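Quick one: structure for this chain?
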Amino acid sequence: MFVIFETNGDEASGFLSNYFDIKAIALLILGVLYIFFSAKWLWRNQLNAQLEKAQKGFMRFMPVVVMSAIVFGCLYGIHWKFKEENIPFTIVSSFSEYKQTKELLKDQLAKPKGQSLHVKSNLSSQATYVIVIGESTTRRNLQLYGYDRETNPLLSEIKEELIIFDSVISPHVHTITAMDKIMTLQSFERPKVDPNVSIVQLANQAGYKTFWLSNQRAVGVFESIPTIIGSAADERYFLNGNAYNDVAYDEILLPKYEEILADTTAHKMIFVHLMGTHVGYDKRYPKDYNHFKGQRKNKDEKASEYINQYDNAVRYNDWILKQLIEALRKKSGDRYLLYLSDHGDDVFEEQNGIGHNEYNATRPMFEVPFILWSLNDQIHLFSDALNIENRRYSLEDFVHSFADLAALKFDGYDSTKSLFNVEFVPKKRIIKDTIDYDNW
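Got it. Here's what it folds into:
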């Protein structure tokens, strides 16, 4: 219900356009018409006759009264026993809880600094760090992860400069729920942290000047969790005012990114939120990137078309990441770029369709790219010595990895939950609240 409440009209229409075709809509209309005319016939031919008979005497109402009592009693019993499955009740109660939660998030996460949190930092003399947050990108379709198409020709050229983690998953397959855990202290172990803190606030308190650069709509002030988190940054830029069904190329971010890099502040932390490979794949890349065509093996024409569009979007995303890296390369001081995605999409791989849906989730929806670019020899030596690329990891603990990368410590920091720490200890990767991903 939280996902439904959080979704704006544009994204909802994009979702529906990919999950409902003309045949499904026609069946829905026929179903509604059937219910309407059946109810109309029942009212005319049955209910009116029963009411006329009941008017002849009080006793005739007794069966109705008794049956009504039984029905309402059953409904109450069902509600008491199966309250979580009561959809109307869940909608009403969840909406109330949703409003309270959003107010709490705005009160805690939108402020520049977290509440009651002590942060220590050990910053270098000059540092520029970039966290790139992708959208709906599964690592299954990346050449860097062994995909059979050249979807990463540019990043492959600098592969020796990359640390490519091959066993990282997202805790959820929807942006709202995923970002809530990836970007804050929330986790399956601690589902209701109070007060909660985001990685943007941690960076602020550590002494970085923070920037939030987004190609996703702000959707009004504090109207979505990514917007709330980004609102804590020192400087915020939401450059996309279009709907999700409109053309939205991530290259719109590049000029502003160059400006931010030119900022003379000694310590900068830049968060870049991409449109990435969001549904509406053919609208995520220019015509010049219409590279993949033709029918895929063992796939029909429709499936092949969607796969081609998605792979083209991934290839364009490869170009975007290369531009971000090359611009950062020109700067001096310590610097790195970390790329991850909030969740993935399954495009006719383990499901007969596209997109992401936690109820019917598949592995490609959880398996996300996690790639670090750095020219720091110590990081690469550390990676080679401990083989950290193969560490099984869930992004619900990302705040601890972020702390090590940002050279900061905070109350509640746990070195065993950081990919970049010698004390790292693998743990169960939980999805859907209770399921162990590795035994799923």
